[in-house]
Amino acid sequence: MVTRRTLISLGVAAGAAAAGGVATASAYSTALHKARAAIDPSLSTLIDTRFGRMEYADRGKGTPLLMVHGTGGGFDQGLLFAGPLLDKGYRIISPSRFGYLRSAFPPEPSSANQADAFADLLDHLGIDTIAISGGSAGALSALEFAIRHPDRCAAVLPIVPATYAPDKDATTSDNAPPGIAAAMTLLRSDFLLWVALSAAPDMLTGTLLATDPALLATASSAEVARAHEILWSILPVSDRADGLINDARLAGHPQPSAIQTITAPLLTISLEDDRFGTARAARHIAATVPRARLVIFPTGGHIWLGHNQELFDHVDSFLQEIGYA
Q1: Which alpha helices (DSSP H) does the chain contain, by range?
Q2: How far apart, in whole angstroms, are the C-alpha atoms of residue 225 and residue 269?
Q3: Roughly what angle, to the nearest 10 degrees, separates helices 190-199 and 22-37?
């Protein structure tokens, strides 16, 4: 948990780092340069939509799948999440949602408007129908796409969905684990986030990634590296601030949507120990959407630690079974 004492400690660490002079400046500069290289403009494309510009990346040559990133992401996170599907031969189209990286932040950045922007992106690409997967907060707009554009949605795949669940504990007002509000104070400065990532990665794994850091001790080296990459890919947070704040509003207090009207085949996946409580939301989706499928892993947290290949094997098998892949 991120407590006031922890934040004070991180403040002291930040002060000490700032006082560290040349060595600190060099380490911070190196980390930020690496982070910015991962989102270099040459790696993505800009188009105009009815809501302003949208950034996206397009990788692979096979069956297309729209991968919608979660909080703290961008096209880069979408590509990271979809890595196993790229390996299986899918074509991954990964947009940066409103307020993330080079995508616009319109006056009404709702999940419904994000879904309509995805339709504009498909028009640009000449794609009539597509399967769409949304991770975490990205599940909100993925579900809205299935609701608002049923003729264009071949399948919908909410993964660890940060969406509405009516059976939520009445004493809890949002989807956040303890300490997330305090942790959000770190998401206003590249330097402060870098200090926290360097000094307290386990703390941020538990809060920002909503995953028990103790799981890292038993995970494979590849999965530990993936967790590390997800955490560090939040940098540069200054390029994601508008999207983060919007997600805190939309996914932190998710509202009901008309998911009962979804006609596309649906598979939703979550984990019992996800500290964002997305297993409840996944069960609600599966119980509400006609003929929906549900997969719940017992452990792995919000980043499905230890289940990356297995999770996307489920996705691939589902898409093949419905005749899409």
Answers
A1: 4-18, 22-37, 75-81, 83-87, 111-125, 138-148, 180-183, 190-199, 201-207, 221-232, 241-250, 278-288, 308-321
A2: 22
A3: 100
Residue 10: per-residue pLDDT? 46
DSSP conformation class of 97: P
Neighbours of 78 (CB within 10 A): 28
- pTM (2 d.p.): 0.90
Residues of the chain with pLDDT under 70: 1-22, 168-186
pLDDT digits (tens, 9 = 90+) for 274-297: 999 999 999 999 999 999 999 999
With DSSP H G I counted as helix, E B as strand and the rest as coil, what are the percentages for the chain, rounded to 5? Answer: 50, 15, 35
Give dist(CA 197, CA 189) in Å, integer. 12
Q: What does the pLDDT read at residue 227? A: 98
